[in-house]
Design brief:
8 helices, two-stranded antiparallel ribbon, mainly alpha, elongated
């Protein structure tokens, strides 16, 4: 007699191909979820938008306050204007005095359309006149430097003019005529005047 006994069913085992397919399905599902997150980003909440707006408003207020503060600094006060005007008047008075001295030394007289001053007249005296002219021109330049605290390039121009005047005066007769035409003191005055007018915006 054939006796048929109950056989236990064998457990199902995934073949290697089935495992590979499952792995690929999992991969695709993860990719789809990441794409959906990227394509459909989450909208910021109302609280976040309010905070960002408040930050922008605070930044704009800070920038506007900075601009107004700078504008106030740049705009001069009426007291500063008055001080600047009074300072300019003082400088102009000093310049007018220096101009009168330079005119007396170089342009105080006129003969046949040629203007000359005391400097070329003193220079007519041999040796002593040339030395005296050099000393007078040097003292005049020093007075300008002390009164207006002039920079180096202006002082260098003074020295050049004084040396040229002294060298011209050494030559007899011709040197005296050239000294009348050169006018070293007037040249030094105009150097100082041009520098100060640029520095202080002088009207006259």
């Amino acid at each position: 007699m054939n006796t048929t006994g109950t056989q236990n069913p064998k457990p199902k085992t995934h073949e290697p191909l089935e495992l590979f397919e499952l792995f690929e399905i999992n991969k695709k599902s993860t990719k789809n979820t990441t794409r959906s997150k990227k394509e459909y980003p989450q909208k910021p909440s109302r609280a976040a938008t309010k905070n960002s707006r408040n930050k922008e408003q605070i930044q704009n207020k800070h920038i506007s306050s900075k601009k107004t503060f700078k504008a106030k600094q740049n705009t001069p006060s009426p007291e500063a204007d008055i001080e600047a005007q009074s300072k300019n008047k003082i400088i102009l008075k000093k310049l007018n005095r220096c101009k009168k001295i330079a005119i007396g030394l170089d342009c105080g007289f006129a003969l046949c359309g040629i203007k000359f001053g005391w400097d070329p007249i003193i220079g007519l005296v041999p040796v002593f006149g040339d030395m005296a002219g050099l000393v007078i021109a040097s003292f005049y330049a020093l007075g300008l430097i002390q009164q207006f605290s002039l920079p180096f390039y202006v002082i260098f121009g003074f020295i050049v003019n004084i040396l040229i005047d002294a060298l011209i005066g050494v030559v007899p007769v011709v040197g005296d005529i050239a000294d009348m035409l050169f006018k070293a003191n007037m040249r030094n005055y105009y150097l100082a005047h041009s520098h100060l007018s640029k520095k202080y915006n002088l009207e006259n």
